[in-house]
Design a protein that fits this description.
Elements (H helix, E strand, L loop, with lengths): L8 H10 L7 E5 L7 E5 L4 H4 L5 E4 L11 E7 L5 E5 L3 H6 L6
Antiparallel strand pairs: 1-2, 3-4, 4-5
Amino acid sequence: PDGEEYRYTLTRVIADTFYNYPNQDAWAYRSVQSRDKCNVAFLPGKSKDCLELVGVMICDLSKSTHNSLSVNYVIDFDSDGNAHAHAIGSPEQQRIFPEIVK
């Protein structure tokens, strides 16, 4: 939030000092919420070079569990950037996110 940028000063110094190599795109660090998970921070401008958005999952967190998301539907994008929603179990969902099991 505005006015709270100072909270990330130490993280920024560590990133710039130890992890900002010429051919590096990002760096990963252990999550403070779960020692089993990691966060990834992309260097400025690198995420668009390294990642491609293939779809979005719209989930109901109130029906999700610690180990499983309750996915309501998925969204993909056409060549013009228009979003299209697809039902779980649809051929489009299977193409975008085959790991979702109905």
